[in-house]
Design a protein that fits this description.
With about 70 residues, the protein is an alpha+beta fold. The chain is about 45% helix and about 15% strand. The protein starts with 5 loop residues before the first strand and ends with a helix.
Length: about 70
């Protein structure tokens, strides 16, 4: 089917799982894939505001994890 998809690798499966857990606490559902990757697949009808909100959460969580 049609849709959007983006993925990126984390350093480890543990780091990926931590990322997913924090995103969930921020009300963003995100999927793991493969051994240590993250993927997100918003629907094609996502609004610019919704996409921006999700990307802001991803950026916030990545910055939080990098500051540890």
């Amino acid at each position: 089917g049609l849709g959007l998809m983006c993925s990126f690798d984390m350093l480890s499966a543990e780091q990926r799982d931590e990322f997913r857990t924090i995103c969930e606490k921020e009300k963003l559902l995100i999927l793991g894939c493969g051994e240590k990757s993250i993927r997100f697949r918003p629907p094609l009808n996502i609004t610019d505001d919704e996409l921006e909100e999700g990307l802001q959460v991803i950026e916030k969580v990545l910055n939080l994890m990098m500051s540890k």
